[in-house]
Specification:
- The protein is mainly β.
- It is 14% helix and 36% strand.
- The chain has helices spanning 6-12, 25-29, 57-66, 96-100; strands spanning 40-43, 75-80, 84-92, 103-105, 109-117, 120-126, 144-146, 152-156, 160-164, 168-174, 178-187.
- The protein is globular, with a radius of gyration of 16 Å.
Length: 188
């Protein structure tokens, strides 16, 4: 499934502009925001509320619902060729300092990050207020790192997810003990 016109609608559709001087997904789809930012945090039971946010979200959440995540091996999985990819991770949690050293955001993908075993703590800051890039954008990995500090931290428990848009700089995998999670990369 092709996400036709999605990035055009986000970045060039005329009308109300968000704080980052482009039309963001929240304004396109009428998602309530705090300070014009778009990160979503919810439980997997409410996933259907977000199907209309992106043409591939129904398929991404369908993968979560129909895949035996409890028995799935850690690794990378293709869901829809170049459009949707999943990575199941089982890693030892990091300190805040370790995670924020890789404070990241993406230009070409939206992350759906589902906590399977946690808790998992995240740092977050709107990209528009980040001022200290940590190196150049890596096009091959679709990642831009920042040296800024997160504005806030939040925690996900098993069965909760966060959706990070290109406007959301995030520091994942903060925690003690083992964190098991699924990250779905949704092409914009």
């Amino acid at each position: 499934m092709e996400a036709e016109g999605y990035s055009d609608r986000i970045f060039t559709e005329p009308g109300r502009r968000c704080a980052h001087q482009h039309r963001c997904v929240a304004h396109v789809y009428g998602i309530p925001t705090v300070n014009n930012n778009t990160m979503i945090i919810d439980t997997i039971d409410n996933a259907s509320r977000y199907f209309s946010v992106h043409p591939l979200f129904r398929q991404a959440f369908g993968y979560i619902a129909t895949t035996g995540l409890d028995t799935l091996e850690a690794g990378k999985y293709s869901i829809e060729e170049d459009q949707l990819h999943a990575s199941l991770m089982h890693k030892k949690g990091m300190t805040e300092q370790e995670s924020t050293a890789k404070f990241e955001c993406h230009n070409k993908h939206i992350d759906i990050q589902l906590c399977l075993q946690g808790p998992e703590r995240f740092g977050w800051k709107p990209r528009a207020t980040c001022t200290r890039e940590n190196g150049d954008y890596n096009d091959a990995k679709d990642v831009q790192l920042y040296n800024d500090r997160p504005d806030m931290f939040f925690e996900l428990q098993a069965g909760q997810f966060a959706i990070f848009f290109p406007e959301d700089v995030h520091a994942p995998l903060i925690g003690e003990g083992q964190i098991r999670k699924l990250v779905i990369k949704v092409k914009i």
